[in-house]
Design a protein that fits this description.
The complex is a heterodimer of chains A (109) and B (126). Chain A is mainly beta and 109 residues long. Chain A is built from one helix and nine strands; from the N terminus they run βββαββββββ. With 126 residues, chain B is mainly β. The chains are: A mainly beta (109), B mainly beta (126). At the A-B interface, strand 4 and strand 8 of A face strand 5, strand 9, strand 11 and strand 12 of B.
Chain lengths: 109, 126
């Protein structure tokens, strides 16, 4: 059972920004700074795009940024591109039995 | 190139068994925790199991405890998942994953996965 809730969908036009939230109800999440974000194109391997709340692995464009305030983490994709259309999952310790959030499908209009 | 390649998926009847394999290359396998993560059709990602570098510690999601066994062969740079007593709800894409940071609390693990395989499909028919 995931203890991290994400909106099911988000969308934006090319060039715009979209922000996805990841909310945990447990105080464990609020005090934990290992929040990751994954991008998943269906049929492909998921990809780590943010770790430790704000850090980007090598090769991930700086259009992707992460933040956290209290019990809510956020992923912002700036300058949306067609290839950003994918499912996005947050992941962290939030007291649930599944470390992954519920997932958000991002659509580029 | 760092790579994980899964194999062993397929169609199996309820109650049957399958053994998934994951062959790694391009990195020092024996210094990493490893995970299995799955995605059921139309659902999100779900952590399944973690195994420590030397195989001495293993963790499982409650729904597979007693039915699935994770193992590894560091000499072969490979990870395995033996799945027994399969149920319809085990139908999923199974991903092999390299763990960059591992945190397990109360028997549940919260890995940061920095390398994923392409997945192998397991279908359990009823």
């Amino acid at each position: 059972q995931s203890a991290l809730t994400q909106p099911p969908s988000a969308s934006g036009s090319p060039g715009q920004s979209v922000t996805i939230t990841c909310t945990g109800t447990s105080s464990d999440f609020g005090g934990y700074n290992y929040v990751s974000w994954y991008q998943h194109h269906p049929g492909k391997a998921p990809k780590l795009i943010i770790y430790e709340v704000t850090k980007r692995p090598s090769g991930v464009p700086d259009r992707f940024s992460g933040s956290k305030s209290g019990n809510t983490a956020s992923l912002t994709v700036s300058g949306l591109q067609a290839e950003d259309e994918a499912d996005y999952y947050c992941s962290s310790y939030a007291g649930g039995t599944n470390p992954f959030g519920t997932g958000t499908k991002v659509t580029v209009l | 190139e760092v790579q994980l390649v899964e194999s062993g998926g397929g169609l199996v009847q309820r109650g049957g068994s399958l053994r998934l394999s994951c062959e790694s290359s391009g990195f020092t396998f024996n210094i990493y925790w490893m995970s299995w993560v799955r995605q059921a059709p139309g659902k999100g990602l779900e952590w399944v199991a973690n195994i420590k570098q030397d195989g001495s510690d293993k963790y499982y999601v409650d729904s597979v405890k007693g039915r699935f066994t994770v193992s590894r062969d560091n000499g072969e740079n490979s990870l395995y998942l033996q799945m027994n007593s399969l149920r319809a709800e085990d139908t999923a894409e199974y991903y092999c994953a390299r763990v960059a940071h591992n945190h397990c609390i109360n028997g549940v693990c919260y890995p940061i996965v920095d390398v994923w395989g392409q997945g192998t499909t397991v279908t359990v028919s009823s």
